[in-house]
Amino acid sequence: MSQGARAGTEYDAETAAEALLSVRSLDAGYGDLQILTDVDLFVSEEEYVTIVGPNGAGKSTVMKSIFGLTNYMAGHIDFGGESIAGKDPEDIIHYGLGYVPQNENVFAGLTVEENLEMGAYILDEFPDEALERTYERFPILRERSGQKAGTLSGGQRQMLAMGRALMLDPDLLMLDEPSAGLAPDLVDEMFDRIDRINDAGTAVLMVEQNAKEALRRCDRGYVLVDGQNRYVDSGDALLADEQVRQDFLGG
Ligand SMILES: Nc1ncnc2c1ncn2[C@@H]1O[C@H](COP(=O)(O)OP(=O)(O)OP(=O)(O)O)[C@@H](O)[C@H]1O
């Protein structure tokens, strides 16, 4: 792995061009404030990719930008071979991209089942089988189906947020810090669930503070610093890199 490596080497350019999600030379921010500069990132079908990096590096901003929630300034964002750059979230969701933000990711005043139904609001007909699949995947949600989401525990709420995003059976699920705020014994369980979602064929793009665990589980990782790509490599290679360990993984 080389320092400053970007998804812009010859090999990567070819892979990136055919990837499910392909972000190239992205500049984006909030209003006039530019946060991301020249960011490259790709996720292939069924791949599991994580973004790690220091606080304020712009990790969440990358996801928000892909989902149309920031000010897009320049570059390319292609999903399934089509450009989604500059589109609204309401449009982007139709392409097969699911997004679970870190905060306020459920409707607290609605029940669990109403939240799941909201996940499929764009469909003309409610997909009963998707609800059943979600309940099979997260049995606790069936048990709590009539309970207001605001009364769920942190872990249950996170499952609901994921379940809601999965109602449309997206090709790619973007997760912003899914382990945030969870008790330590629930963190592993959450990561196991994400593994299973990926094993079942959904590509995953995840931002995580728990960088070691995220890199251990993913296929590929990006280290983002100051709104720019710093490293990109397999999770194992990043974990083994002395410089990455020292600078970003606490030695
Ligand atoms: N809505 C906003 N308006 C203006 N600036 C913002 C907004 N949201 C985030 N920022 C700024 O963008 C920069 C990147 O923030 P971002 O949340 O993407 O970083 P991060 O790498 O996800 O950080 P953390 O790990 O702390 O969550 C920060 O300087 C932050 O203050």
Helix content: 25-40%
Distance between the termini: 18 Å
Shape, per Cα inertia axes = globular
Largest sheet: 6 strands, mixed
Name every ligand kind in the structure.
adenosine-5'-triphosphate
Keywords: Amino-acid transport, ATP-binding, Nucleotide-binding, Transport
GO molecular function: ATP binding; ATP hydrolysis activity; branched-chain amino acid transmembrane transporter activity
Protein name: ABC transporter ATP-binding protein
Domain ABC transporter: 21-251
Structure report:
37% of the residues lie in helices and 25% in strands. The chain has 251 residues and is of the alpha/beta class. The protein has one domain: P-loop containing nucleotide triphosphate hydrolases (Rossmann fold, 3-Layer(aba) Sandwich), CATH 3.40.50. The strands form two sheets. It has a six-stranded mixed beta sheet with strand order 6-7-8-3-9-10, with helices on both faces. Strands 2-1-4-5 form a four-stranded antiparallel beta sheet. Helix 4 packs parallel to helix 7 (154-166). The radius of gyration is 18 Å and the shape is globular. The two termini are 18 Å apart. Residues 1-11 have low confidence and may be disordered. Bound molecules: adenosine-5'-triphosphate (ATP). The site of adenosine-5'-triphosphate has 12 residues, from strand 2 and helix 2.
